[in-house]
Amino acid sequence: MKAVRQGAVAILILLFSPAAWAQTGALKPLTTLTPEAEPEPPKDPLGRNTPRGAVLNFIANVRKGHAEIAALYLNGPLKGPLRSANAETLAQQLAVVLDRRLPARLDQISDKPEGSVPDPLRPDEDVIGTISTSNGDLDVFVERVDRGKSGKVWLFSQKTLQSIPDIFDELSTPAVETVLPAFLVKTRFLTIPLFEWLAVFVGMPFLYLMTGLLNRLISGAVGACRRRLFRNADIKNRRVLPPPIRLLLLALSIYWLLSRVGLPLLARQFWVTTIFVIVIVACTWLLMLVTKGVEHYLVSLRPSLSGSAAVLRLIRRVTNGLLLLAALLFALHHFGIDPTAALAGLGVGGIAVALAAQKTLENVIAGISLIADQAVRVGDTLKLGDIVGTVEDVGLRSTRIRTLDRTVVSVPNGQIANMSLETLSARDKFWFHPIMGLRYETTPVQLRSVIGGIRKLLTEHSNIASSSVRVRFLRFSAFALEVEICAYVIALDWDSFISIQQELLLHVLNIVKESGTSIAFPSQTLYLAAGLSDKAGPFVPEVEGRRGRKTHHDEQGASH
Questions:
Q1: Do 444 and 452 touch, CB atoms closer than 8 A?
Q2: Which residues of the chain have pLDDT under 50?
Q3: pLDDT at 177
Q4: Distance from C-alpha of 36 to C-alpha of 101, rounded to nearest angstrom
Q5: How many Å apart are CA 58 and CA 75, to the nearest integer?
């Protein structure tokens, strides 16, 4: 039985062993299940692997005069009415039509080997643009053709080529090259005709200067109208057309000239890109000027609001940064650049900067909180821990305080936000609270006279809140009869309170004097007790603190 069990276990192990299945061929190795990587398509020497590459290289060969090479970008053999046409002639006609009629949107043509695939029913066909003809709009197609061992390449479709001769005959507007002098067209620098260089470095600055002249004329006319309307000859001319508006006018002028002048496709593509860049810069600049104007307007509404200018300036700078970032991202998207990697890098860098500037960010956020809550204002007298002084400036990172010693202390806003803050200058009333000591020889009649006189003085004073007046005989202290005086003084600031307090104290002294008593002053009274028998020994002095020094009689009436 033991041998049978061992044999059964061996059979089960053999049956469920991957090695056994692999040897018998029932189970194939895992490597055979992995799909094989497709070989990369061969690279076409003429750059026809993508629709954009086919179009750009076709135009470049025609401009260089390589008509026989340009004919290789056409999908032949030609049929129908093109049977008698020469392929090179057709390539030149196609190049002229594209130069004159194709919209300058070369950056929107797909640069992928599979194309943009707009129609899933025709995946090997792509539209590169739409041109206007007398019979309506015509889509210009390129199609993907399999060349066997050479791979698949993109060529101008036969359907497009059949319409090219008729469209070529419709062209009536002469190209700009036929109007300009020959030396401006034939003279080239870096393969670019001289007239195009002049248009960039002479024409554009000239148009911008013309917008400046227009700005002066309009500003002068508007200024004259304002001076006449308000009848004030001192009103100055305001700039009606700021630089961003002038840039927009420049872009509009270039766009208008493009519609009137027959430029080659590549030149139109350059100018369309230039217009796009000018518009992006002008709009971003204009929005930044708007944020600046809003900041100045909000600050002018409450100019005394402490720290508001710093917060608004920070908000404006953050907004301007976001505007610049949005403009950059929009431009990158327009040119077909994926900014995802750059944004990821900025995110990681932002986290690193935030960690490194943690204390600074803490102070900035605390500063915004202090300014928003108006906890600290310029001109306030503060007591912050051991610091007492006047606030001179409330910034985003720190607050500057002028101390009583006339030194300036800069306290981080994060520290202020976590400390107990006492604003001394925020008091609406000042507490007048002296405690006056009268001599022990003061009689009750004199004491009542002093209390009544002081109460009448405080109640009738114009700077005293009468409901807060309290004058009471407080207690018998070690050296005097203490009288508590309490009242709230209405004053503008600390200096005014000190002046009023001085006046009140002088009147109190007069009241005490008129009552027949006086203010107690520190003194000691010596009491000498005599012994009642001879065994009592010498006199034992007893000292008791009293206001005023005086000699008393002992029990036997003897003066000591």
A1: no
A2: 1-37, 78-85, 532-533, 535-536, 539-560
A3: 65
A4: 46
A5: 13
341 and 235 housed in the same domain: yes
- How many whole angstroms separate alpha carbon 486 and alpha carbon 466? 11
Q: Which residues contact 298 (CB under 8 A, 6 or more apart)?
A: 308, 312
Residues 202 and 342 in one domain: yes
Structural domain includes residue 180: no
How many other CB atoms are there within 10 angstroms of residue 57's CB atom? 19
Please tell me the predicted confidence (pLDDT) of residue 132: 81
For residue 224, being part of any structural domain is answered with yes
Q: Is 526 inside a domain boundary?
A: no
Q: Are residues 487 and 421 in the same domain?
A: no
- What local confidence, expressed as pLDDT, does residue 550 receive? 43
Query: Which is it for strands 522-529 and 421-423: parallel, antiparallel or unpaired?
Result: unpaired
What pLDDT, on the 0 to 100 scale, is given for residue 316? Answer: 87
Q: What is the DSSP string of 57-75?
A: HHHHHHHTT-HHHHGGGB-
Domain count along the chain = 5
Q: Are residues 332 and 417 in the same domain?
A: no
Residue-range definition of the domain harbouring residue 101: 51-172
Which CATH number fits the domain that encloses residue 448? Answer: 3.30.70.100
User: Is the alpha carbon torsion for 423, 424, 426, 431 positive or negative?
Assistant: positive
Could you report the per-residue pLDDT of 76-106, keeping only the tens digit for each? 654 444 443 478 888 888 888 888 888 888 8
Q: How many CA atoms within 13 Å lie on the side-chain side of 95?
A: 24
Residues 506 and 414 in one domain: no
The span from the first CA to the last CA of the chain, in angstroms, equals: 135
| Residue matched to tokens 């207690």 | 475
* Same domain? 327 vs 224: yes
Report pLDDT for 305.
Answer: 59
pLDDT at residue number 353: 67
How far are the Cα atoms of 115, 124, 156, 167, 333 from residue 118, in angstroms, in the given order?
A: 9, 10, 17, 25, 19
Residue 385 in any domain: the answer is yes
DSSP string, 100-135: HHS-S-GGGS--STT-----TT-TTEEEEEEEEETT
Amino acid identity, residue 463? N
Residue 560 to residue 181: CA distance in whole angstroms? 135
Closest CA to 199 of 118, 265, 281, 258: 258
Quick check: pTM over 0.70?
no
